Amino acid sequence: MNASRRLSQWIAILAGLALAFGGQPLMTAATPVTAGPPLVPAGEVPYVPPPPGCVATTQFFHHDGTELITDDSTITSTLTVGGISPYIWNLTAYTAISHTYSSDLRVFLIGPNEFGTRNTLTTNNGGSNDDVFAFTIWTDLALLGVTEMSFPVGYSPVFLIPEGAVGKHFHHDPNGDWSLVVQDAAAQDTGSLNGWALDIATLPFQPIGDSQFPSKAVNQPITNTDIITSSIVVSGAGTRLDNITANLVIPHTRSGELTITLWAPTGLTTTLTSGNGFTLTNLYNGVTFTDDPVGPFMGPVTDAAYADGVSLGQVQPEGAMRHFAGINPNGPWRLVIKDSGGTGTGTFVSWQLGVYTSHCEALYLPTVSR
User: Fold this and answer.
1) pLDDT tens string for the chain (370 positions)?
2) Where in the chain is the domain with CATH 2.60.120.260?
């Protein structure tokens, strides 16, 4: 089934579920939201083409029915995935959630055997609006992240980058029981989970990987309201990007004053952090932004366990690193740092990219016996 047809069918089905259980019809923005060039034509589910020589298979799994979301409660819904290839290449999650105060919600996706622990879709976003997530397609390829959106009354976005990138599930085995955990974190308002689904593209083998780690020393002071741009040129890499990481050394006396974005050679951007960290010092002094972090904290920068003077280590960005998946990574990448003003100062010491490309040609060649 092609992407646009699948999208239209599931919008109709899940919108109907939301209406049937007391939700509101899907709403659209009064004016379009623009944030750079879209990766796919309007109306299609975003999709990352597989690496050269790879044969990907996409299958759709859905959970129907309704579960009530009561005050200060947690529900867990399970979806069994089976019979597909063992290597996740791309994942898209669909949720239909009715609720009369959307920022009460905390929603998490957990893979089989809790690999990588829980994946944060949203925590306390959407303000006081009804049914912001009446039908949401969570994909790292959306234009904006849920934490970056403004939610005017009557606006229910369809495509959103989750608070913690679904790229966290990239390269894991999808077969087994997946869980969607929905928490109501406040009193008075209630809702219901009316359905959810996973669209999973898999490969039968792990691709053959290539990587490089270009870096740059900058050593530039950061003062109030500064905007600093630094470029790293990637060359000689493969032509299809799988994944990218960014390691930053940016000591700063008020980490919450910083907004940091990464720009690809194509002009595509993702937000690494924007106003996170309050008045704490040096949270980004040796931080690595990656969709699938390891270490003491394995979630998004927006919900990190901040400690004054302690770098976050590995952390998920506010956007998604696999937002760039599928592009040609060769060319100049830019890191842009903005200081919002205040009493904090710092230094942009250095940064490094981890650029990962891959292919499958050798894996799929026939074996010849002599």
Assistant:
1) 444 445 555 555 554 544 443 433 333 322 222 222 333 334 467 788 899 999 999 999 999 889 999 888 999 999 999 999 999 999 999 999 998 888 999 999 999 976 656 899 999 988 888 888 988 999 999 988 999 887 777 777 789 999 999 999 999 999 999 999 999 987 788 889 999 999 999 999 999 999 999 999 999 999 888 899 999 999 999 999 999 999 999 999 999 999 999 999 999 999 999 999 999 999 999 999 999 998 777 789 998 889 999 999 999 999 999 999 999 999 999 999 999 988 999 999 999 999 999 999 876 655 545 4
2) 3-203, 208-359
Q: How far is CA 96 from CA 22, 43, 65, 104, 128, in A?
A: 12, 18, 11, 15, 18
The two tokens of residue 83 are 């019979």
Q: 336 - beta bridge partners?
A: 229, 261
Domain made up of 208-359: CATH architecture: Sandwich (2.60)
| CATH T-level assignment (fold) for domain 3-203 | Jelly Rolls (2.60.120)
Sheet containing 269-274, strands listed edge to edge, beginning at the edge strand earlier in sequence: 227-234, 331-339, 258-263, 269-274
Under a CB-based contact definition with an 8 Å cutoff, are residues 325 and 281 in contact? Answer: no
Give this prediction's pTM.
Answer: 0.86
